[in-house]
TrEMBL record:
<dbReference type="InterPro" id="IPR050155">
    <property type="entry name" value="HAD-like_hydrolase_sf"/>
</dbReference>
<dbReference type="InterPro" id="IPR041492">
    <property type="entry name" value="HAD_2"/>
</dbReference>
<dbReference type="InterPro" id="IPR036412">
    <property type="entry name" value="HAD-like_sf"/>
</dbReference>
<dbReference type="InterPro" id="IPR023214">
    <property type="entry name" value="HAD_sf"/>
</dbReference>
<keyword id="KW-0378">Hydrolase</keyword>
<protein>
    <submittedName>
        <fullName>HAD family hydrolase</fullName>
    </submittedName>
</protein>
<dbReference type="InterPro" id="IPR023198">
    <property type="entry name" value="PGP-like_dom2"/>
</dbReference>
<dbReference type="Pfam" id="PF13419">
    <property type="entry name" value="HAD_2"/>
</dbReference>
<dbReference type="GO" id="GO:0004713">
    <property type="term" value="F:protein tyrosine kinase activity"/>
</dbReference>
<dbReference type="GO" id="GO:0016787">
    <property type="term" value="F:hydrolase activity"/>
</dbReference>
<dbReference type="GO" id="GO:0005829">
    <property type="term" value="C:cytosol"/>
</dbReference>
Length: 231
Protein backbone atom coordinates (compact mmCIF):
# COMPACT_ATOMS: atom_id res chain seq x y z
CA UNK A 1 0.00 0.00 0.00
CA UNK A 2 1.28 3.48 -0.87
CA UNK A 3 2.59 5.30 2.21
CA UNK A 4 0.77 8.39 3.45
CA UNK A 5 3.09 11.41 3.31
CA UNK A 6 2.94 14.90 4.81
CA UNK A 7 5.23 17.89 5.14
CA UNK A 8 7.08 17.35 8.44
CA UNK A 9 5.84 19.76 11.12
CA UNK A 10 8.00 22.07 13.21
CA UNK A 11 5.69 21.88 16.25
CA UNK A 12 2.63 19.86 17.22
CA UNK A 13 -0.64 20.90 18.86
CA UNK A 14 -2.51 18.00 20.45
CA UNK A 15 -6.14 17.78 21.39
CA UNK A 16 -6.74 16.36 24.88
CA UNK A 17 -10.11 14.56 25.06
CA UNK A 18 -10.19 11.62 22.66
CA UNK A 19 -6.57 12.11 21.63
CA UNK A 20 -4.44 11.85 24.77
CA UNK A 21 -7.06 11.00 27.37
CA UNK A 22 -10.21 8.85 27.35
CA UNK A 23 -12.32 11.34 29.28
CA UNK A 24 -15.82 10.36 28.17
CA UNK A 25 -16.99 8.90 31.52
CA UNK A 26 -16.40 12.10 33.49
CA UNK A 27 -17.64 14.42 30.74
CA UNK A 28 -20.86 12.56 29.98
CA UNK A 29 -21.75 12.04 33.65
CA UNK A 30 -21.12 15.72 34.38
CA UNK A 31 -23.18 16.85 31.39
CA UNK A 32 -26.08 14.60 32.39
CA UNK A 33 -25.99 15.91 35.97
CA UNK A 34 -25.91 19.50 34.74
CA UNK A 35 -28.90 18.99 32.46
CA UNK A 36 -30.91 17.39 35.25
CA UNK A 37 -29.94 20.30 37.48
CA UNK A 38 -31.47 22.88 35.15
CA UNK A 39 -34.55 20.78 34.41
CA UNK A 40 -33.55 19.84 30.86
CA UNK A 41 -34.02 16.40 29.34
CA UNK A 42 -30.95 14.17 29.36
CA UNK A 43 -30.31 12.72 25.89
CA UNK A 44 -29.33 9.15 25.05
CA UNK A 45 -25.78 8.00 25.91
CA UNK A 46 -24.76 8.11 22.24
CA UNK A 47 -25.75 11.78 22.06
CA UNK A 48 -23.91 12.59 25.29
CA UNK A 49 -20.80 10.89 23.91
CA UNK A 50 -20.90 13.34 21.02
CA UNK A 51 -20.40 16.14 23.56
CA UNK A 52 -16.82 14.98 24.12
CA UNK A 53 -14.61 17.33 22.14
CA UNK A 54 -16.58 20.44 21.13
CA UNK A 55 -17.19 23.26 23.62
CA UNK A 56 -19.97 22.17 25.98
CA UNK A 57 -21.94 25.39 25.53
CA UNK A 58 -22.17 24.73 21.79
CA UNK A 59 -23.38 21.18 22.44
CA UNK A 60 -26.08 22.45 24.79
CA UNK A 61 -27.19 25.07 22.28
CA UNK A 62 -26.77 23.38 18.90
CA UNK A 63 -27.34 19.73 19.70
CA UNK A 64 -30.00 20.05 22.39
CA UNK A 65 -31.49 23.37 21.31
CA UNK A 66 -31.39 24.92 24.78
CA UNK A 67 -32.06 28.64 24.93
CA UNK A 68 -29.12 30.87 25.81
CA UNK A 69 -30.05 31.40 29.47
CA UNK A 70 -30.63 27.70 30.14
CA UNK A 71 -27.47 26.72 28.26
CA UNK A 72 -25.39 29.13 30.33
CA UNK A 73 -26.86 27.79 33.57
CA UNK A 74 -26.20 24.25 32.40
CA UNK A 75 -22.62 25.19 31.47
CA UNK A 76 -22.00 26.60 34.95
CA UNK A 77 -23.45 23.47 36.54
CA UNK A 78 -21.39 21.26 34.23
CA UNK A 79 -18.13 22.99 35.08
CA UNK A 80 -18.82 22.77 38.81
CA UNK A 81 -19.65 19.08 38.66
CA UNK A 82 -16.77 18.30 36.32
CA UNK A 83 -14.23 20.07 38.55
CA UNK A 84 -15.55 18.26 41.63
CA UNK A 85 -15.96 14.74 40.29
CA UNK A 86 -15.47 14.40 36.54
CA UNK A 87 -12.03 15.64 35.55
CA UNK A 88 -10.10 12.65 36.84
CA UNK A 89 -12.75 10.11 35.84
CA UNK A 90 -10.61 9.38 32.81
CA UNK A 91 -7.63 7.35 31.61
CA UNK A 92 -4.64 7.80 29.33
CA UNK A 93 -4.84 5.99 26.03
CA UNK A 94 -2.30 3.21 25.68
CA UNK A 95 0.95 4.40 24.18
CA UNK A 96 0.40 8.13 24.76
CA UNK A 97 3.37 8.78 27.10
CA UNK A 98 5.67 6.84 24.78
CA UNK A 99 4.28 8.74 21.78
CA UNK A 100 4.96 12.10 23.42
CA UNK A 101 8.46 10.98 24.40
CA UNK A 102 9.22 9.88 20.84
CA UNK A 103 7.97 13.14 19.34
CA UNK A 104 9.94 15.17 21.88
CA UNK A 105 13.06 13.10 21.19
CA UNK A 106 12.62 13.97 17.51
CA UNK A 107 12.87 17.65 18.44
CA UNK A 108 9.20 18.54 18.07
CA UNK A 109 7.86 21.09 20.58
CA UNK A 110 4.51 19.80 21.87
CA UNK A 111 1.48 21.62 23.23
CA UNK A 112 -2.11 20.82 24.14
CA UNK A 113 -4.87 22.79 22.41
CA UNK A 114 -8.23 21.80 23.86
CA UNK A 115 -11.83 22.99 24.06
CA UNK A 116 -11.75 22.10 27.75
CA UNK A 117 -11.51 24.93 30.29
CA UNK A 118 -7.80 25.60 30.64
CA UNK A 119 -7.45 25.12 34.40
CA UNK A 120 -8.97 21.64 34.16
CA UNK A 121 -6.78 20.78 31.17
CA UNK A 122 -3.70 21.78 33.15
CA UNK A 123 -4.93 19.72 36.11
CA UNK A 124 -5.41 16.62 33.96
CA UNK A 125 -2.05 16.85 32.19
CA UNK A 126 -0.33 17.22 35.56
CA UNK A 127 -2.27 14.32 37.05
CA UNK A 128 -1.08 11.99 34.29
CA UNK A 129 2.47 13.34 34.20
CA UNK A 130 2.13 14.79 30.72
CA UNK A 131 2.91 18.39 31.67
CA UNK A 132 6.67 17.85 31.70
CA UNK A 133 6.49 16.78 28.06
CA UNK A 134 4.58 19.89 26.95
CA UNK A 135 5.61 23.47 26.25
CA UNK A 136 2.14 24.77 27.13
CA UNK A 137 -1.45 23.72 27.76
CA UNK A 138 -4.00 26.03 26.16
CA UNK A 139 -7.76 25.80 26.61
CA UNK A 140 -10.98 27.74 26.84
CA UNK A 141 -10.84 30.85 29.05
CA UNK A 142 -13.87 33.07 29.52
CA UNK A 143 -11.72 35.68 31.28
CA UNK A 144 -9.41 35.89 28.25
CA UNK A 145 -12.31 35.88 25.79
CA UNK A 146 -11.12 32.57 24.36
CA UNK A 147 -14.26 30.53 23.74
CA UNK A 148 -13.69 28.60 20.49
CA UNK A 149 -11.21 25.96 19.36
CA UNK A 150 -10.00 28.28 16.63
CA UNK A 151 -9.08 30.90 19.24
CA UNK A 152 -7.39 28.21 21.34
CA UNK A 153 -5.26 27.11 18.38
CA UNK A 154 -4.27 30.70 17.64
CA UNK A 155 -3.27 31.31 21.26
CA UNK A 156 -1.42 28.00 21.45
CA UNK A 157 0.71 28.87 18.42
CA UNK A 158 1.43 32.29 19.93
CA UNK A 159 2.58 30.69 23.19
CA UNK A 160 4.82 28.25 21.35
CA UNK A 161 6.37 31.15 19.45
CA UNK A 162 6.90 33.05 22.71
CA UNK A 163 8.74 30.01 24.09
CA UNK A 164 11.10 30.06 21.12
CA UNK A 165 9.55 27.19 19.16
CA UNK A 166 9.66 27.19 15.37
CA UNK A 167 6.02 27.75 14.39
CA UNK A 168 6.69 27.88 10.67
CA UNK A 169 4.84 24.60 10.12
CA UNK A 170 2.51 23.83 13.03
CA UNK A 171 0.31 20.74 12.94
CA UNK A 172 -2.90 19.98 14.85
CA UNK A 173 -3.70 16.42 16.00
CA UNK A 174 -7.24 15.56 17.07
CA UNK A 175 -10.15 13.15 16.82
CA UNK A 176 -13.16 15.33 15.98
CA UNK A 177 -14.23 17.27 12.90
CA UNK A 178 -14.21 20.36 15.11
CA UNK A 179 -10.42 19.97 15.40
CA UNK A 180 -10.00 19.65 11.62
CA UNK A 181 -12.26 22.61 10.83
CA UNK A 182 -10.81 24.91 13.48
CA UNK A 183 -7.25 24.14 12.44
CA UNK A 184 -8.08 24.74 8.77
CA UNK A 185 -9.62 28.11 9.67
CA UNK A 186 -6.26 29.07 11.19
CA UNK A 187 -4.29 27.77 8.22
CA UNK A 188 -2.93 24.84 10.23
CA UNK A 189 -2.98 21.32 8.72
CA UNK A 190 -4.45 18.59 10.91
CA UNK A 191 -4.06 14.85 11.41
CA UNK A 192 -7.10 12.84 12.48
CA UNK A 193 -6.70 10.06 15.06
CA UNK A 194 -9.12 7.16 14.91
CA UNK A 195 -8.80 5.98 18.51
CA UNK A 196 -10.95 8.82 19.88
CA UNK A 197 -14.65 9.68 19.70
CA UNK A 198 -15.08 10.79 16.10
CA UNK A 199 -16.10 8.43 13.31
CA UNK A 200 -14.38 8.14 9.92
CA UNK A 201 -16.40 11.01 8.45
CA UNK A 202 -14.77 13.40 10.92
CA UNK A 203 -11.42 13.04 9.18
CA UNK A 204 -12.66 15.20 6.29
CA UNK A 205 -10.12 17.92 5.62
CA UNK A 206 -7.30 16.17 7.48
CA UNK A 207 -3.97 15.65 5.75
CA UNK A 208 -3.88 12.11 7.16
CA UNK A 209 -5.77 9.77 9.48
CA UNK A 210 -3.94 7.35 11.79
CA UNK A 211 -5.15 4.35 13.77
CA UNK A 212 -2.65 4.35 16.62
CA UNK A 213 0.19 6.22 18.33
CA UNK A 214 2.86 4.25 16.46
CA UNK A 215 1.48 5.43 13.11
CA UNK A 216 1.41 9.01 14.36
CA UNK A 217 5.05 8.78 15.47
CA UNK A 218 6.10 7.51 12.05
CA UNK A 219 4.07 10.15 10.25
CA UNK A 220 5.35 13.10 12.26
CA UNK A 221 8.99 12.04 12.55
CA UNK A 222 9.48 10.49 9.11
CA UNK A 223 6.90 12.41 7.12
CA UNK A 224 5.21 9.15 6.12
CA UNK A 225 3.68 5.92 7.34
CA UNK A 226 2.44 2.79 5.63
CA UNK A 227 -1.18 1.97 6.60
CA UNK A 228 -2.17 -1.48 7.84
CA UNK A 229 1.31 -2.33 9.06
CA UNK A 230 2.86 -2.48 5.61
CA UNK A 231 5.88 -0.40 6.55
Amino acid sequence: MTPVRITPPTCVLLDLDGTLVDSAPGITASAAAALRGVGAAVPAPAVLRGFVGPPMYESFRRTLGLDEETALRALTAYRERYAAAGALDSALYDGVPEMLDALSAAGLPLAVATSKVEDQAVRITRHYGLDTRLVTVCGISDAAGRTTKRQVIRECVARLRAHGADVGAPLMVGDRSYDMESAAAEGVPAVHVRWGYGDASESAGAVASVSGPAELIHLLTRGAYAPCGTE
